[in-house]
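hey m, so remember when u said the tokens were messed up on ur end? i reran from scratch. heres the input so u can diff it against urs
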Amino acid sequence: MVLSFHHAVLPNLLCERVQGFLLDLCQDLKENGCQFIGHIKVLLKNDQGRFYFFSVTSFDQFPACKGNITKEISRITLTMNVIVYGLPESQVSILVNKKLQNINQFIENTKGG
């Protein structure tokens, strides 16, 4: 999924927002009957090949932000892999897509920090 922004976004803001996204997603999964997280991985990569990587493997884990993005971002590619147990794949897709809409909406309304 490619996210394009009307205004450049500061790297730390993007990192914080994705961490919040993952915490919210884990909570929503748990509230909807998810029993176990295999893993949730997110890779954000900009056009210069710089990246942020996030990983979650349990409900109570705070997602660390690892990577090397140092400049404001106006476009980024998001790749996500979710393996969880206790929910049908269709319900997982709905929850993930709803949260992804929130990320883009938040970033678009933030105007670079």
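this time it looks ok to me. Strands lie at 2-9, 36-45, 51-56, 66-67, 73-85. if urs says something different then somethings off w ur setup not the seq
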